[in-house]
Amino acid sequence: MWSGVLSFRLKNVTNNNPMRQVLPLIILLFSFPLFSQVKEKVPPTDAIVVSGLVEKEITFGIAEISAITSRPVADVVITNHVGEPRGTAKGLRGVLVKDLLSGVTIKSESPKVLSEFYFTFIASDGYTVVYSWNELFNSPNGENCYLIVEKDGKKLFEMPERMLVITPTDFKTGRRHIKGLSRISVARASKN
Length: 192
Description:
By secondary structure, this protein is of the alpha+beta class. The protein has two domains: about 1-35, no CATH class; about 45-190, Oxidoreductase, molybdopterin-binding domain (Sulfite Oxidase, Chain A, domain 2, Alpha-Beta Complex), CATH 3.90.420.10. The chain has helices spanning about 1-15, 20-35, 60-65, 95-100, 135, and strands spanning about 45-50, 60, 70-75, 75-80, 85-90, 90-95, 115-125, 130, 145-150, 155, 165, 180-190. It is globular.
């Protein structure tokens, strides 16, 4: 049955028929999902620049980050925005982001106003994630936000997704799974 339908369709397409013009569009429509699922790799980075409302811009390179005490991180199931598993990060060691940022002096008139500050993490591909000061320095989340320095037995300089940030306690871990972190910008919430 199908071969008869197919030969009928092909005959109609090969004649001077409007279907001849429509067929390439139909093929394109059906093949688009195949090509749209190809993910581009995020370019790895070798340093993180911390800037914005800080006393002095600081750059953390691989050597500086590797010198900070790291700790083992349990395997993390990476989920998408609806909670579907997309992979598992294994063999992890990480540096707490708050330990990395502890040497950064924020421009503030008093410690009381630090609750108004936030950190924008920006990856090499433009992916952006925000953490509040309180989230990193005044809540359990700060004890679970890691800059990964080892993954699957590979050291930081060998990791293809370096600089990688993971917050394993997030409900949907992929939301703040930041590959190729290049900048952290410190800002203050406006009072408008």
